[in-house]
Amino acid sequence: MQQYPDWIWHNGSIKRWQDATTHVMAHGLHYGSSVFEGIRCYETPDGPAIFRLTDHNRRLYASARIYDMALPYDLDTLNAACHEVIARNGLTRAYLRPFAWRGLGGFGLSADTPIEMSVATWFMGPYLGEAALETGIDACVSSWQRFAPNTIPAGAKAGGNYLSGQLIAREARRLGFGEGIALASTGLLSEGAGENLFLVFDGALHTTPVSAALLNGITRNTIITLARENGIEVVERDLPREYLYLCDELFMCGTAAEITPIRSVDGRQVGAGRPGPVTRRIQDLFFGLFDGRTQDTHGWLEPLQG
Ligand code: PMP
């Protein structure tokens, strides 16, 4: 059974988990009008630290701006709430979920309802399973495409977008795959259900561009930055589906999935069928941020306060 933490931040204060309720007629529940973030807090040699908290929360405000939602609390208040809720629950290794949604206040699609905000946190290990980080997963290309850029903006991390992610992920699991990869409406590669994609050709990283209906991931940006700083070439470019079958290595990344190698796509083995040297190097650089092997030169680790 799911174990819930004791405390949650809701509309400006810390409350008991069971007391953080919203009305069943909240706009967000009916129309998908919510925005959210997923952030991890890691145990580091210098104590627990929230990884790129401010960058994630800035993206939350950007998502809200796209949907014309004026959030009732500012960035500093939200950052403080994130620290407070982790500390209050006595967690050190945790997943954080700040979110905002249109609440109760009218029935129309364009109703300017009051906006509620919350921050939840809980313990979370590797999203696709402990073994996935080591051995990789089997993925498939989904029969569902991502939305066209003139329909729903993929650059907003909004609740409604995740109807697409659910179709892709649930289809993949139903067919026995670890995760699904979607094509954009152009027919070119987009991203995973909840992860960005990297392909390796001749030692260089190739990743799909933000114009390919994907979320501009903070893990993606971390990898691009670390790779370039360590002499690994990174190319952002349109990629056709068949390159999944031709690349030397393949992995997906995201806050939840971290860096998960992909060992096969649509039943075709990728490279040697196990995580290759570039994937391993990127994993080392990334996880090294949390065990001290990689220097945090960008101030990405925000030490847990409270
Ligand atoms: N794409 C989608 C659709 C996602 O939901 C996520 C997870 N937030 C990502 C990519 C990866 O983004 P990030 O690295 O910022 O977690």
Automatic annotation (TrEMBL):
InterPro entries reported in the protein's UniProt record: Aminotrans_IV, Aminotrans_IV_CS, Aminotransferase-like, B_amino_transI, BCAT-like_C, BCAT-like_N, BCAT_family, Class-IV_PLP-Dep_Aminotrnsfr
Q: In which pathway does it act?
A: Amino-acid biosynthesis; L-isoleucine biosynthesis; L-isoleucine from 2-oxobutanoate: step 4/4; Amino-acid biosynthesis; L-leucine biosynthesis; L-leucine from 3-methyl-2-oxobutanoate: step 4/4; Amino-acid biosynthesis; L-valine biosynthesis; L-valine from pyruvate: step 4/4; Cofactor biosynthesis; tetrahydrofolate biosynthesis; 4-aminobenzoate from chorismate: step 2/2
Concerning Pfam families, the annotation shows:
Aminotran_4
Judging by the UniProt lineage, the source's domain of life is Bacteria
What sort of enzyme, by top EC class, is this?
transferase
Obligatory cofactor(s): pyridoxal 5'-phosphate
Q: Name one GO molecular function term.
A: branched-chain-amino-acid transaminase activity
Per its record, the protein catalyses:
L-isoleucine + 2-oxoglutarate = (S)-3-methyl-2-oxopentanoate + L-glutamate; L-valine + 2-oxoglutarate = 3-methyl-2-oxobutanoate + L-glutamate; 4-amino-4-deoxychorismate = 4-aminobenzoate + pyruvate + H(+); L-leucine + 2-oxoglutarate = 4-methyl-2-oxopentanoate + L-glutamate
Q: Which PROSITE patterns match?
A: AA_TRANSFER_CLASS_4 (PS00770)
**Cited CDD domains:** BCAT_beta_family
For biological process, the GO terms are: aspartate biosynthetic process; folic acid biosynthetic process; isoleucine biosynthetic process; L-leucine biosynthetic process; L-valine biosynthetic process
**Name under which the protein is recorded:** Branched-chain-amino-acid aminotransferase
UniProt gene name: ilvE
